[in-house]
Amino acid sequence: MMRPEPEFVPIARGAAPRNAEAGFSLLEVLIGLVVLSTMMAVAVVAYQRMWPGVQANAALDGVESELQMARQDALTERRTFEVQFQPPDQLTVSRIALNGTLTAEPAYTLPYGATYQLFAGQPDTPDALGNSAPIDFTDINGGAGGDTLLFQSDGSVTDLAGADVNGTVFLGLTGNAVTARAVTLYGITGILHGYSYDAATNSFQ
């Protein structure tokens, strides 16, 4: 039995046959490395620009979380919880027993070097609760609320004298105004709002 002749595939004049298993040429590898390096450089620059904002958001989220948990614990346990802001970068939550004894939780420290601060020319938040100090609380009688708040068992927030307070906590990374963040608090309801500074409009949003 005769074997069939192998099929002949003509090759165009002047064209060199390419080995199917041949790798990339040195030029192709170099071009690929240049493209990859460019993409990585762009990604690094974008990350460096975004990172301070990510850090500030983490600090904002931390303060909001501490305040929300203090309010929730006060509602759940039917007890008063004290929140004491401790500049430049800490706050402490304590449970107040019926006999007045305070049981403090571990102090919370703002991450990434964030501190309570106001930047030059920084506006107030849309809630307009004041921006005369980094920790700015005022009672319903117009008096200074101080740095210590009491979350009552009904979810409201008062000062040490028992008067409802409203106010704002401002924070950010030193030397970087675009990282300005703020938390507002309404004393009667205990409702929080978090804000981020928008440099393009010079406002909190």
User: What is the global morphology?
Assistant: elongated
How many individual β-strands? 12
Strand content: 25-35%
Q: Unreliable stretches, pLDDT < 50, 5 or more residues? A: none
List the total number of helices.
Answer: 1
Nearest-integer average pLDDT: 88
Give the SSE order as H and E letters: HEEEEEEEEEEEE
| Class derived from helix and strand content | alpha+beta
Q: Estimate percent helicity.
A: 25-40%
User: How big is the Rg?
Assistant: 30 Å
Structure commentary:
With 205 residues, the chain is α+β, with helices and mostly antiparallel strands. It has one helix spanning 26-77, and strands at 80-86, 90-96, 102-104, 108-109, 115-116, 135-139, 148-151, 157-158, 165-173, 176-186, 191-198, 203-204. Strands 1, 2, 3, 4, 7 and 8 form a six-stranded antiparallel beta sheet that branches. Strands 5, 6, 9, 10, 11 and 12 form a six-stranded antiparallel beta sheet that branches. It starts with 25 loop residues before the first helix and ends with a strand. The relative contact order is 0.15.
